[in-house]
Amino acid sequence: MDRNQHIIGSVIERKPGVSASTPTTRGPTRNGFPTVEHRSKSAFARGREEASRKGGKERVREVPVIQTTPNEIVAPRRSILNGVTGEEDWRRQVSEENQRRVEDMSQEELEQERREILERFGTGVGDILRKAKDAREKTERESSEKSAAVSEDKISTKPEEMENEVVHEDARRHADGLRDMANSPFSPLSPRSALLRSSTRPPSRTDRKLRFAELMPEDVHVYQSAPPSPKRTPLALMAPSASDREDKSIISLGLWKGAASTSANHKLPKDSSPVALQSNGTDQITELEEGTPEDIRRRFFPNMPADDPSLAWITSRPSNDPMSPSPLRFDLTGTPVPASLSTSLPTHLGLHHHAEGTHAGYTIDDIFLLSRSTMPAQRATMLDVLARIAKRLGKARKSKISDEGMEELKGKEEDLRKRILAAGIEAMGQQGSVGIMAVDVLWECIVGWDQELVDIEGVEFVESKPPGPVADESNDAKKPTTGRDPISTLPVDYLLSQISEALSTGALPETSLAQLLDILHRLAQYSNAYATAIVTETKLLSSVVSEFLLTPIPPASTSPLPNPLAIQLLSTLALASRSNAITAANYADALLRFVVTLPPESPYSQSLATTLLASTLEFYTVLASYGLYASIATIAAEHFHSLGNYVLSKCTSKRLMSAWPNLLAAWIVCATDPHQTTPSHEILWSQVAGWGWGEEILDLRAKLDEDGYQEVWAAVWNTVAAWLEGARVNGIKGGEEERMKIIERIADDFVNGMEATVVSQSIENMQHLLPQLASIDNSLETSEAEILVGLTEISKEVKVLMAVLRLWLSCTLPLSDDPPASPPFLLPFKQISSVAAHLTRHPIWSCLHSQTTALPSYSTAYLRPLSSFLSLYLRLSRRLPGTTPDLWLAQACTVIQRVLPGDEDFAQRTLEQMMCVVTPNFIAQAGWNVSNAVWENGAMDIITPFYVHSVRPQLDEEEERYGDVGPLILTPQSIAFAATQRAPSLSTLRSRLGRDFGVPLPRDWSYTPLDHLLRSGTSPIFKALPSKWSASETDVTRSVLLLGKTVREVLRAHGLGSEFAMTREETVFGCMKVFMLEHGQDQESDSLQDEVFRDSAVGSFMVDLLTPFSWANVSSAFNAPSSQDLEQVSRRFLGPSTPFYQFYTDFLGLYDSISFSHPLFARLLLPPLSMRYPVDYRKLLWDDFHHTLRTIRTPVEDVLTDDMVQYLYPVESDKAVVAAYLGALVKSGTTHSFLRFVAVHHIAAHIWKDLQPGGGSMDEERTEKLIKAVVTQGDLNTVKEVVLYKQVLGQKEINAEGLLLPPQCYKQSGAWKEERLHQVERWGLKERLQGLLA
């Protein structure tokens, strides 16, 4: 457009007083009718045509020059100088107008108006108006006098100064007038006339003065709220209180970086005024450079302070230094903007719409702020940026190499993920592009963050913490954890309701709806609670099925295709709980459409139809694991028969070839005992036998190769094994005919056929993968993706070995555990035993009891096949000819410590079999002398119920249980009682072990009956004992200690003691439990013979158990350093609320009351006195129970320790304990043997410098007091021991190998004596001690 062409023509201000134009009538037309005027012609065009017809002048195109008339300006000024304000002029005009109206009114009208006024305002209105008039006239007189005084003062003022003063006087008077009118209830507030306003300042600046509150950085806050609504008015909220500032729900968007005004530094003098400041700064204004911020402020904003935040826009911006540090910024694609480019990128890229406009790109805080914008387009754009950032963060977290430009966010990924997730949820309910981008954000944070987990089933992902505070972690347990999984913080109810509404209305695009399905599946994977919430959400499942599965057949070009993930979602929900499976079964009929039409005839593509069919079969398998929906095998028998023929002939999909046998195996288990299905008799064994699934599935082997078909081989062998196991129950002669047919078909193939190659290859792969898996540790050098790959590979191989062992066992004779005369078919038993031995001792199992490895929480899904393989191998080992009873017992003791939830039935059967092995003949062969009283009173039979019960602990009815987990290998019992088919995560298993889960068993599992005896009043086992059970506490204790000794000896004999036998601390705590059986008993009525620990057999067993851990046997293999102390070992029994110190206090009190110097009782008091334990234990014995010291006469060689130095160093620093040591020494006969050795050491170490490791400094005054107390109060033997005590120290501490014990520690000689003599000389004791130190 031409710059000289005017967009707006002539705009001329109309002079006041010109009357408004009246409409004009058009002249007559030719035909007498008005001229037709088209609406396409504008009013301006018609006006110009009318003016042309009338001969008017052409429109003025130049802007007229405004001539200033002196009278127009001077008149208002003169009225101001005369004291006439705008309000007074307005009041005068109104008064004159009212006077004219009154004069024009008749007498009747005047009377009518007077009556109306009296009726409206009352009879006293006249007095009120008269008083108001008198007050107004008084004010006018005072104002006139003041104006006259001002006029006299201004006579000598220069014109330009007078004009300036007049302007500010006008502003001041106007402000005073407004203030007076606001304070007076009768002062009408009315706008001023435009003629009375100053012509030198805009009215917005002369009328009012703006003042801002003092602003500090901590005064700026943003509160989380409900999703923003366009109809909601923003509210100004107060700053949070001190307690609110700690609330994590209040999110700070950063501190204000501006210069805050401080009242102490910027207050104006009392006598200062805008006029004075203006007049005083006139000379300074001329000195300032024109255009500077201060010049602009003084010219246009003279009444505002220089540091007012509202004037920050006029300040000079610092020069853009590319090298200056700048926070991480992102462009609109979520890519980091390099700092070197942030100041040079052009502004048209849309990267400068933020507070710091000189830098291109948006900081994290900018993006979060703009993601709550009220502009939908802006908000959608920022949500898209957040989604892209989340994607980059997720990739950077998995990669060893950090993303370029994202180094600043390293280690903050989870915190940012939580914030991004919150922004997406807040925008979830919005319409249009904002809602679409919100779904994208949620998908990236929930699904895309770890998308590789989508196919992991059978385990929860949720991280769990212990139900209460734990000992040394009690303080941390009460604090909010910053590393908590963001998914656990989701508002699930709100999120699911939004997803349900979105799916039911279909308002989102297909891509977004598919993302919502991904999100639902990931939430269902996360925890059983989330899965239940999805199932119970109104119309959610029905909307999923309608939207993603019940699509038109045949599909139209515009209709969506079925999504197999929807079927997988149903399977995941059903795996979570039985109740979910019952609900999901209502949609099982709808999936028959994918079974009836096989992939070759399907209207969908071959790959999609095969995936839909395989997913449907897997869903039916999950339902069958609860005994549900098995009747469909009979109802749709013809279609499933056609499916079987297709799988055996034309199918090439490995997934479908695995899904079909797995479904048949599940239905076979349901038919084995039809009473266990829901409802019962859903499928019968006669039907299964008629269909011939067991033999038919063997035909699938012809299509399989030796490589890449491990899952299919395992599925085939499991189906055949299930068939033979069912035939044992329902077949003739225990299924002998079926068993012989199967053996005949497969025996040769396991020698020279494909089966032999598959088994050998799996064994080789296991031997290669197990060492690689052992490299996983806490170094975090192995990424989670690499761990997942390793676990997946080893799980795939071990499932093959599981299936072949199950098949071999199913081919053996039923009702017999003895080795068969000949094996059903040959297997590489030696190699399988080697793999089992290696796997049993693998370090990966340490994750079950402590978080010592980098395994993720979902690793339980991959540990379950390993555990099931060991269970099957233990069954196999018992049937091998070379397995002796003691070898099998040692193997069983290791395997039951590797059993996971779901295999409780196997653990219970194994424990019963183990009790049957420990017989008098077995003990006699071991060469042990056991009292006949042990066998006469029941021996192992009386304690077997305790072990069986411990595998499935029973909670109170009020307590919520996790639920029984179904095994990997289905049984008729599991389909009836399983509450879930998903194993708990590792953290959940560790936190609830012993409470909800009885397996894996701990190393001290043999002491379990003692736990129930100590809690006999509350333990539910005593209500479930057989009616003939009548054993005493002594009988139970004898059997427990005998079993404990047997377990330890068989493990030691086969080289498994260091990993699976009880440690020193576990053995000590177990023996403490034996003595604590007397706690709370009525000691007056009980005789000494009734005390359990005084029984000769009990005492003998405890001595045998403790002897290998004494100092005399320090070289024993059992006496190795332990990673846990008594406080940690006792936590499993005492629970999180009872500290071991309380238990030890009761134990010491019991010793004081009933021990009568029992030597073994006294021996168990010593371990907590080690310097590795808190000082409270030493203070309790040496100070509070000092009277019991004389009864403790334990020799040094009988102390239960592997390192005597732990009792000596570091030197005791607590003054109370040192004083107790001194008192015990100087009082004759108080300490003996080991306790005297400890007391002498710590007192001597506080006296002699050569006993301090590293030559540490000593308190001379305290040292002098100690030696003088020993010399003056102790006997000669005590003085001699303290003065002559010596230990050989290394550079920092005592050398354990060179430890000197009594009496050698008192008989040493050397130059150290001369040094000590110099010390005592300073104390004035040389004469008394010279003989000892000579």
TrEMBL record:
Cell compartments where the protein resides: Nucleus
Alphabetical UniProt keywords: Nucleus, Transcription
Ranges where the RPAP1 C-terminal domain occurs: 328-393
Compositionally biased tracts (Low complexity): 184-203
Region annotation Disordered: where it falls in the sequence: 1-62, 86-112, 129-207, 464-486
Main location: nucleus
Biased amino acid composition, Basic and acidic residues: 36-62, 88-104, 129-179
Record's compositionally biased regions (Polar residues): 19-28
Keyword Transcription: yes
GO biological process, one term: transcription by RNA polymerase II
Record flagged with keyword Nucleus: yes
Domain RPAP1/MINIYO-like TPR repeats per the UniProt entry, residue ranges: 1138-1247
RPAP1 N-terminal domain boundaries: 93-136
Family membership noted in the UniProt record: Belongs to the RPAP1 family.
Descriptive protein name: RNA polymerase II-associated protein 1 C-terminal domain-containing protein
Species per Swiss-Prot/TrEMBL record: Neolentinus lepideus HHB14362 ss-1
Lineage of origin: Eukaryota, Fungi, Dikarya, Basidiomycota, Agaricomycotina
